[in-house]
Amino acid sequence: MSAPSQTGPQLRLARAAEHLADLKAEIDAFLETKPYLIEREDDPENPDRELFRVRAITTPPARIATLAGDCIHGLRSSLDHLAWQLALLGTDTPNERTEFPICTTREAWLRNCWKIADAPRRARLEVQRVQPYRSPDIPTHELLWILHRLWNVDKHRHLHVLGYATESSIFNLTGESSKSGVNHGPMRDGMVVGWRTGIPPHERPKLAAYFDFAVTFGDPAESFGTLPVYATLNATNNYLRWEVFPRFRACLP
Fold first, then answer.
1. Residue 132, helix vs strand vs coil
2. What's the rounded Cα separation, in Å, for the pair 230 and 213?
3. DSSP letter at 91?
4. Each residue of 188-224: pLDDT tens digit?
């Protein structure tokens, strides 16, 4: 039997990165079709303001959700493979239910830390240190927990991809009195995505406004809510690669 190492888990992580690249290409190709239209209009309730509405929304193809699911599974699986290799440091026959626990409360950690009980104490402490409940921020907003929830959802049902949210915008303005704003929420047909004030009506059609959109998840009740699909999974991949896995190099080369 070969010595425990990070080789297998790192291969899982690398495969997840390949799925991530495929996902980005699919999203980019979809957005290149311009599945939305931005219309400019004068605000009937405020003569000084013009509005920008999104029209003709096309639903993202199901393949995007499928590719996202493949990436999610690879990322979560890499952690469970890591947990197994850590357990092999302590025993030749780890518990078959060994996995990398992810918990948002200390109570949940105490109920689930047995899943890495075969790992040496040093390794168990490192697993505990990356737990979402240890974060000074909102635990359910942590990348590990979002990954865990996405993985659970994808196991039992197809991920719901909602559509778009405004990712960035560029407004051409004139003078210090000109102002603009953007709605970063998920888009619906006819929704106002941006506004601009302080520009004379005859100048407005000459000044362009540009919007970039991202494909988002579509389950507001979940911790991942309507986060952008690619940006969220890319951030998670980077977090595992550069923050989580390096913690275990001292005990698991």
1. helix
2. 12
3. -
4. 899 999 999 999 999 998 888 888 889 999 887 787 8
Q: From CA 231, how far away is CA 168, in angstroms rounded?
A: 13
Q: What is the H or E stretch that residue 6 is in? A: none
| H/E element, 14 | helix 7-32
Summary count for the chain: helices (H), strands (E): 6, 6
Q: How far apart are CA 62 and CA 111, in angstroms?
A: 37
Sheet of 179-182, strands arranged across:
37-42, 49-55, 192-197, 179-182
- Length of the chain counted residue by residue: 253
Task: List the end-to-end C-alpha distance of the chain, in Å, as a whole number.
Answer: 16
- Domain regions of the chain by residue span: 7-248
Measure the CA–CA gap between 123 and 250, rounded to whole angstroms: 9
Cβ count near 19 (within 10 Å): 21
Task: Give the per-residue pLDDT at 87.
Answer: 98
Residues in Cβ contact with 140 at an 8 Å cutoff, skipping those fewer than 6 apart: 104, 132, 146, 223
> Which H or E run contains 137?
none
H helix or E strand, kind and range, residue 8: helix 7-32
Q: Quick one: which H or E segment has residue 178?
A: none
